[in-house]
Amino acid sequence: MSKVTLLITSCVAMLVVSIPVGAQNPVKGAARTEMVRNIRPFGQPVVPIFEGWYPKEDGSYDLCYGFHNLNTKQTIDLPLGPDNYIEPARFDGVQPTHFDPVPMTGDLRYFCVFTVNVPADFGDQDVTWTLRIDGQEYSVPGHTTHLEYRIRALELPSIEAVAPLVKFIEPKGPQGSGRSGVRAGPVRARVGSPLPLKIEVTEPEGMMDRDSGFEAVTARWAKHQGPGEVVFQHTDDATSVRQEVGLSTMATFSEPGDYVLRIQAFEGLRQRWQVHCCWTNAFLEVTVTP
């Protein structure tokens, strides 16, 4: 079995793949400065990406990871186990098992979809995420040893960006902000029966010291883990110009089992991914019965 170790951050992740460099395709709608190699409709791998790290108030650190599915049409599912694991093993299990194709919004890939929290005395150790696809392993180490990898956590004054406060309304749950995420559930659902979901997205008090709330917000729902297909049917617009918005959807599951749904919410109609700040991850655990 061959193995590729990706010693990269997001700024160069789209230039490192395991297939010959000769075939290169620009992506329609991407920025002129960006080129993604070897993107095809089908047959390509998923590349794990280490985004960077940031300190927490308690002295620990969060390591951010995203992924780049090199297919424009093919969805890939890799259950937790020998084809999808994190080392050291005590950090394993928080990563996605479902990898959607290249986003149609021009984002090119999926930024910081989960974090790993390491203690203050973690030192120069690595937290390595590995994916195995068609006999090829793709690994990326995360660490806190290089200042160049440090990213902003909740706000970026230079562009007046702030991670929103996300609260679960239906089902009722906690609220929080930032890429570390807020988790709700587990809740129960049945195969084929739509599960109503609703979140509230607001501006956290005391951040950025602005005179008004958000002019608009955007939320992206996705399957993070689970054995079957999840279909999302939005029941209101994905964006709103109100200062407070409740973003609603219906999730329908094709198979029984344990699932995790992921929401990424940010201020505005344009993504904050390229500056690595500021958005909020939220996760909902769902147990689906026949």
Structure, briefly:
The chain has 290 residues and is mostly beta strands. The chain has one helix spanning 10-13; strands at 2-5, 24-25, 36-37, 46-55, 61-69, 76-77, 84-87, 98-99, 110-118, 127-133, 136-142, 155-156, 161-162, 165-170, 175-176, 182-190, 195-202, 217-225, 230-234, 239-240, 245-253, 257-267, 279-289. A hairpin with a 5-residue loop joins strand 4 (46-55) and strand 5.
List keywords for this structure.
Immunoglobulin-like; 2 domains; single chain; 1 helix; 290 residues; mainly beta; 1% helix; five-stranded antiparallel beta sheet; five-stranded mixed beta sheet
Fold and architecture overview:
The structure is a single chain. By secondary structure, the chain is mainly β. 1% of the residues lie in helices and 46% in strands. The chain folds into 2 domains: 148 residues, no CATH class; 135 residues, Immunoglobulins (Immunoglobulin-like), CATH 2.60.40.10. The protein has a 5-stranded antiparallel β-sheet with strand order 15-14-17-21-19, with no helix packed on it. Strands 16-23-22-18-20 form a 5-stranded mixed β-sheet, with no helix packed on it. A 4-stranded mixed β-sheet has the order 1-11-10-7, with no helix packed on it. The longest helix is centred in the N-terminal third of the chain and has 4 residues.
